[in-house]
Amino acid sequence: MTTTGSSSDMRQRVGASRRWVVKVGSSLVTNDGRGLDHARIADWVAQIAALAGQGYQIVVVSSGAVAEGLVRLGWQRRPDTLNGLQAAASVGQMGLVEAYEREFQRHGLRTAQVLLTHEEVADRRRYLNARGTLLTLLDLGVIPVVNENDVVATEEIRLGDNDTLAALTVNLVDADLLVILTDQAGMFDADPRGNSNASLIDTQRADDPALLPMAGGGSGALGRGGMRTKVQAAQQAARSGAHTLIADGRSPAVLGRIAAGESLGTLLTAGERKLAARKRWIAGHRQTRGCVHVDAGAARVLRQSGRSLLPIGITRVEGDFRRGDIVVCTDPEGRDIARGMANYDAPEVARLAGRPSESIIDILGYAGDPEFLHRDNLVLI
Ligand SMILES: Nc1ncnc2c1ncn2[C@@H]1O[C@H](COP(=O)(O)OP(=O)(O)O)[C@@H](O)[C@H]1O
Ligand SMILES: N[C@@H](CCC(=O)OP(=O)(O)O)C(=O)O
Question: Which residues does the UniProt record annotate as the domain PUA (predicted)?
Answer without folding.
Answer: 290-373
